[in-house]
Amino acid sequence: MHDQRLALETSLFHQYYGELLRFLTVRLGCRDQAADVVQDTFLRVRNVKDLAGVTQPRAFLYKTALNLTVDVFRRRKIRTERTTHLDETVDLPSSLPRQDDVIDAKQRVRLLHDAIAELPPKCREVFLLHKFMFLPHSDIAERLGISRNMVEKHVIKAMAHCRRRVEGHEES
Length: 172
Description:
Distance between the termini: 93 Å
Largest sheet: none
Order of helices and strands: HHHHHHHH
Strand content: under 5%
Structural class: mainly alpha
Number of helices: 8
């Protein structure tokens, strides 16, 4: 029984492989895809329980191959819908910063760092506590033993100095 089935499968393969391959190559426009579908067709045939009961094996093979071809077209359509073509990506905005912006930002940070380093020690300390430690003026005044008014003057002086240094460099 098993030998008869194997002989029938082998016979169908030899008899119709080339014919199916040519037919599907024209249909799919790609010989490699057609060969894959032909192979899948014969794999499906192997899973048919009563292969000897199939009265029109050629029609059965073609019907199976055409059904598999429809699946290929569906996958192509889905892939096309989900795929962004390379030429379409040129105009897509990037979430990454532009290289020029990164360089400018690094330069501004360096300028700000240098400007802060140039401040008188007490002014620098007040500025750092306010801008980077986020302490309110009253806490800074208490911590350093100076008036709130003096804290405000130091912050204003530091901000003006830093702004002049950073903006002055941008203009040159």
